[in-house]
Write a structure and sequence with these properties.
A three-stranded antiparallel sheet has the order 1-2-3, with no helix packed on it. The radius of gyration is 17 Å and the shape is elongated. It is α+β, with helices and mostly antiparallel strands and about 60 residues long. The protein contains one helix and three strands, in the order H-E-E-E. Helices cover about 15% and strands about 55% of the residues.
């Protein structure tokens, strides 16, 4: 599997997407994709109540 091609495709999704890859010989690789989620809540009158940014991390095992 061509890891550089996968990383290039993921970056096309958005410039905020950054990935890191940990490769271990004869053990495959671990692809880590951090994604930011932003939640903004408003009350009934339209005033902002909260603004939260959450960093989600997804790990996937890639067996070669």
């Amino acid at each position: 599997m061509d890891i550089s091609a996968l990383m290039r495709d993921l970056r096309k999704i958005g410039p905020q997407v950054r990935v890191s890859v940990n490769i271990k010989r004869d053990q495959g690789a671990e692809l880590i994709i951090p994604i930011l989620r932003r939640t903004i809540k408003y009350d009934a009158t339209g005033h902002k109540v909260s603004d939260t940014i959450t960093n989600l991390v997804t790990k996937t095992e890639i067996n070669q």
